[in-house]
Amino acid sequence: LNLSGNTPKTPKILNVLALLLGPRFSTDVVIVETSDHARLSLKLSYNWFFEIDKKNQDQAALLFSVPDFIGDFCKAIASRVRGSVASQSFDHFHKYSADLIRKAVFGADEAGNIRNRFHFKSNNLIITNIDIQSVEPVDQRTRDALQKSVQLAIEITTKSQEATARHEAERREQEAKGRLERQKIDDEAEAEKARKNLLSLQAASAAVESTGTASAEAKARAEAAKIEGESNVTNAKLKAEAQSTKASVQLKILQNEQQTEISHKKAWNTLEIKKADELAGIEASKFKSIVDAIGAETLKKISQAGPEMQAKLLSGLGLKSFMITDGNHPINLFSTAAGLIGSSQ
């Protein structure tokens, strides 16, 4: 394929073996003239791609129906741009160049909104976007007019901004003065209100001062009496607790003393009982020893001897009296004791 190339586009510059479907972009330079004969050089960049169904052979064949599709769509777009710019003045085009060019190429719908694509039905080529890279005058007269227009626009913009700033400063100054006056009035009102509150407080303070001393003294006496009563109650509670503690301690001491005395008595009685048992054992052992020493024959003779002889034998043995009997003939101790008492009398 022999395609147009360079910027501006020149036919048969590119020799390609493959056709790229995109998305791609191409750049071209278009010379236009406004209604007031201002010649301008526009450098435009186009985004494009082929919209086909790869499975459809008929649509694929359409790709090669236009041998130089780049030169073809660049010429078509340039023609539309020239036609649109020719009906516009230089100043109007200079202000709205982007919208005018996009509308000339893409067109507008019923609502006046600019469309976003340009379709070439011969080979299904789609232009999606146009970028205006530069706008330059072609002749010196147009360049001077453009510079003058730009300077004039800058001056107008500067003066407009200065006027706006001046008006804004005056407005802010008036607002500041108004706020200052309002603040002054508010401050005076607040000061008057504060004076009124001060007078009210002074009157209330005088009333409190006249009646507050007696009330304070009465409250102080009542508080002192309350404190004294609470102190007495607290002292009474502490004394009661002390008495209770003292009684508990004394009771515990008494219980310990009684327990100690009981233990002592118990130990003493145990010792006395043990002593009596030991003495009784000693006496029994002594008596047995005496009986064993005397012998059964001697005791028999003593029992058969007369009273005088018995007394001698007993005194010789260190015995005052004794009684010998068996278990078959019990002795009436009561009658025996009565006889002994009567004999002694």
Summarize the structure.
The chain has about 350 residues and is an alpha+beta fold.
Walk me through this protein's architecture.
The protein has 345 residues and is α+β, with helices and mostly antiparallel strands. The chain has seven helices and six strands. The strands form two sheets. The chain has a four-stranded antiparallel beta sheet with strand order 3-4-6-5. The radius of gyration is 74 Å and the shape is elongated.
Structural descriptors:
single chain; alpha+beta; 6 strands; elongated
> Structural class per helix/strand content?
alpha+beta
Beta-strand content: 5-15%
Mean pLDDT: 83
Major beta-sheet overview: 4 strands, antiparallel
Distance between the termini: 186 Å
- So how many helices? 7
Number of strands: 6
Q: What is the radius of gyration?
A: 74 Å
List low-confidence stretches. Answer: none
How helix-rich are the residues, as a percent range?
Answer: 55-70%
Main-sheet strand order equals 3-4-6-5
User: Helix and strand string, N-terminal first?
Assistant: EEEEHHHEEHHHH
Gross morphology is: elongated
Topology:
Blueprint: E1 2-5, E2 10-15, E3 24-33, E4 39-50, H1 57-62, H2 69-86, H3 90-106, E5 118-120, E6 125-137, H4 140-294, H5 296-304, H6 307-317, H7 333-344
Antiparallel strand pairs: 1-2, 3-4, 4-6, 5-6
